Amino acid sequence: MAKRLTDEEIVSALIECGTIKGASEKLGVQLKTLYSRMKKEQFRELYNRAKSDLLKSATAKMQKYLVDACDVIADIMRDKETSQQVRLNASDCIIRNTIKLLEQTDIIERIEHLEEQTKENIS
């Protein structure tokens, strides 16, 4: 009799392998077994939570190096020995990403303000 895989085992394999096919091979089960499990709401919630946790962890790790990355780009931009095109690309990178961050910050602040207003209106 085949061992019944837990949701946690399947989620772990999906995260580790990155594909359903890879996970099915790792676990030694047919694709339809995984697709069947993925149709269940409780499994999808567990899988989505695991993916979200992984993304949060990776984001936190990347944030640790954000200032260093900005310094590298700024150093390239200021280096007179570097070609003009590379310096222009570094400048463009700084400008574009600064605009994105400002826009996202503004959107987040607006959403938070709307959430506060909604809570006050409900109270």
Characterization of the model:
The protein has two domains: 1-63; 65-123. It is flat. Helix content is 84%, strand content 0%. With 123 residues, the chain is mostly helical. It contains six helices and no strands. The chain has helices at 7-17, 20-27, 31-38, 41-64, 66-78, 84-122.
Q: What is the number of strand segments?
A: 0
Structural class: mainly alpha
pLDDT < 50 runs, ≥5 residues:
none
Number of helices: 6
Q: Based on Cα principal axes, name the global outline.
A: flat
Task: Supply the number of structural domains.
Answer: 2
Proportion of residues in extended strands? under 5%
Order of helices and strands: HHHHHH
Q: Helix proportion of residues, in percent? A: over 70%
Gap between N and C termini, in Å? 57 Å
The residue-averaged pLDDT reads 94
Largest sheet: none
Any idea what the radius of gyration is?
A: 23 Å
